């Protein structure tokens, strides 16, 4: 096997040589949608203590060149800004999802690109190109080891995010095919992040690292460091160490022709993605609903594993079947404010939560749900949802994405800047709109 | 299982509460020996291009507080200095070895401690304490997953180094038991580094990250971030993701009474540790040796796997049975200069290399070797070494360690400062001796 036969060689050529005019208009627009959703998510939590703490810890270790922190007045160097903006974008898992891998693709990839572009003057179009290339590499590597990789305990958004960040930064920096592959090889030695730590803030550190270490990998490749040709699929390489052998065909098959990132989806609700069908079913059957006596939610094992648990705080609320049902039925919506501590403690919501039971129906596909409500008069209403809002079968429209952006605190001027990102000679004016004064 | 039953709880108490006067004089001195060996290794390669490149890449991302880079005039912030000094200390694998795990314990642990101590004014004694605590945690976690972890493809010096750095920094920062454990939990989500990448500079990035991310973990724990209680041994935690379940008893059994770091060893030769017995055997039988016709080196499979390969450059020389035999027999030594490109190209050495054959003797224990030389007159000499110089059975003396330090370019004043490290009110004067003017 020569070096040219490894997946890395094909990825390196893709990163360096895919033509700037080779993106379809639909794909190009999906990139814009991903970025709008990303900016909104980061804005919505800009004041969260987890973000403030990350900034406080990183600030003494920031060089003089400064990049924007979304929704905040402070700045950090590109490494620090990549770290903090990535944490913010993924903090509530309200960001985008590549459903097959459950990767949230944009959080780790966009921040280092925006920071690099701000500091070195790259254009918005160059950022959008680099984002699509980076996110594509991230998702393809993720697909090649799914589902075993996540099942083994790897937080795939972190472990594959570092590849996406490295690939995107390599593209933006104009590295050649060999250097671009080397960036991925160096990223392989930095890939980390555990599912066990997901309920804790340690998850944020793993995410932030994916963004900043991907940037670091590209900078080291640019500076001449090397990597093993089989860093990904070698006998002692990334894929085997972190699970089983990769399905290399899934990494390289149809590269540049078929796009995984074209399948990106966006969440309408700030709750675990498996609860979206539950919420949609409740919204569907609530109109004119009388007094509720009993509620049964049915779904596959994953839904029960993730959602049938005790509720203590906002974090629990976002992964509680009971809470999702209660707010959707009582309030007719499931927005950020419906998962706040106030909503958790709301007496009407709490009463309704107490009437919810969850049961297994293994015949329902993953991501689907059936909600059966028995009313006080003994009558029964049932709604079943197989393609919830935001899923591949029922994607959010541009208008819905914009409404989500506004609900997260975004302004019309900011939204306009993101939609027109690829028309600006630099990302500076857009990033200035996202800096808090 | 309550949180108190996890390994982390015991490690957190050990890190925070082990009494400063609880170290035996022998253990305390072993700490000094580890640091002297560390400083020499980093000094010896201070001008290496790999170190210069690491500095160049990190410099724009350094905050204003400055810490010493060993053997160089430049400074970086604590995060950058930890990164670069760790790379230097481990660059040639000429650093220390905990033989059971093949962890090089000091490279990732000492640099962040020295940088933190320089910046915040901690004493040398506090650094030595924190080093022993950190290296102990590093080796115990490594022992608990050995040998399967390395065999799976994990570069254990990187993957466990981040725990050692986190534990040491937690001790130095005075974190409480819960915070100290949290630092390890955050480190678990940053643990990375692949064996596949070992022959490349990507290995250096993995090493540097272990040092700086361990520091980062402690700083985030100090700032209030959390981690999962079972981040190490949980079902979706570090040990299972990175291999099999840990032997928890090896992590916590006899903690504070029996010390893994007391078993630290130091290399007399800048070659792979499995070649040390080969070199010693050659040195033993060379006296008065006539013209050599044929040389047979025998050892276990690991020796053959690592050493029976084509020789192209200095890096290959350090892992070549043939070259180790040739310099030891012809020059009567195997120092840094005997693995230089000049030595590789030396005609006499090359001729002798051509006479070396390697064969399997599975009855020899790991780390042992037998060298049989047939002379031109048909006579035969055989030497077998089971405990090579520097191994646990035949440790290097203080004088030998000092000679190695001097051979690496260290001065008498520097050596004196390291031996007396624990007497200084701050590490500043010692670190100033290690900064190049």
TrEMBL record, chains A, B:
GO molecular function, one term: lyase activity
Pfam families (alphabetical): MmgE_PrpD_C, MmgE_PrpD_N
Residue span, MmgE/PrpD N-terminal domain: 10-249
MmgE/PrpD C-terminal domain mapped to chain residues: 269-413
Protein family according to the UniProt entry: Belongs to the PrpD family.
Family matches, as PANTHER family: 2-METHYLCITRATE DEHYDRATASE, 2-METHYLCITRATE DEHYDRATASE-RELATED
Protein's recorded name: MmgE/PrpD family protein
Organism: Teichococcus deserti
């Amino acid at each position: 096997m020569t070096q040219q036969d490894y997946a890395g060689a094909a990825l390196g050529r893709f990163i360096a040589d895919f033509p700037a005019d080779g993106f379809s208009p639909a794909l190009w627009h999906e990139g814009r949608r991903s970025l709008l959703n990303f900016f909104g998510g980061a804005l919505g939590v800009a004041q969260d203590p987890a973000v403030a703490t990350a900034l406080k810890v990183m600030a003494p270790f920031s060089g003089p060149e400064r990049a924007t922190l979304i929704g905040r007045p402070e700045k950090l160097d590109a490494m620090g800004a990549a770290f903090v903006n990535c944490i913010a974008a993924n903090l509530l898992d309200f960001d985008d999802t590549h459903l097959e891998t459950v990767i949230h693709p944009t959080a780790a990839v966009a921040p280092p690109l925006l920071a690099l572009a701000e500091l070195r003057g790259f254009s918005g179009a160059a950022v959008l190109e680099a984002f699509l290339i980076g996110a594509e590499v991230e998702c393809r590597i993720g697909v090649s080891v799914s589902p075993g990789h996540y099942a083994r305990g790897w937080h795939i958004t972190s472990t594959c995010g570092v590849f996406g960040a490295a690939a995107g930064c390599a593209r933006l920096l104009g590295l050649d095919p060999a250097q671009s592959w080397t960036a991925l090889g160096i990223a392989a030695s930095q890939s980390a992040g555990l599912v066990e730590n997901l309920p804790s803030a340690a998850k944020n550190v793993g995410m932030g690292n994916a963004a900043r270490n991907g940037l670091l990998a590209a900078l080291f490749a640019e500076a001449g460091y090397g990597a093993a040709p089989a860093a990904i699929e070698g006998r002692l390489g990334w894929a085997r160490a972190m699970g089983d052998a990769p399905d290399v065909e899934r990494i390289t098959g149809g590269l540049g022709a078929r796009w995984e990132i074209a399948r990106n989806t966006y969440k309408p609700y700030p709750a675990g993605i498996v609860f979206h069908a539950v919420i949609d079913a409740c919204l569907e059957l609530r109109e004119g609903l009388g007094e509720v006596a009993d509620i049964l939610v049915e779904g596959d094992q994953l839904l029960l594993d993730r959602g049938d648990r005790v509720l203590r705080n906002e974090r629990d609320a976002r992964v509680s079947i009971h809470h999702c049902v209660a707010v959707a039925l009582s309030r007719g919506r499931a927005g950020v404010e419906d998962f706040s501590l106030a909503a958790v403690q709301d007496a009407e919501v709490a009463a309704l939560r107490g009437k919810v039971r969850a049961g297994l129906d293994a015949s329902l596909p993953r991501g689907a749900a059936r909600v059966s409500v028995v009313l006080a008069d003994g009558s029964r209403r049932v709604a079943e949802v197989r393609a919830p809002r935001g899923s591949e079968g029922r994607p959010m429209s541009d208008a819905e994405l914009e409404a989500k952006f506004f609900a997260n605190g975004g302004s019309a001027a900011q939204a306009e800047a993101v939609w027109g990102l690829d028309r600006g000679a630099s990302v500076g004016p857009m990033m200035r709109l996202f800096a808090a004064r």
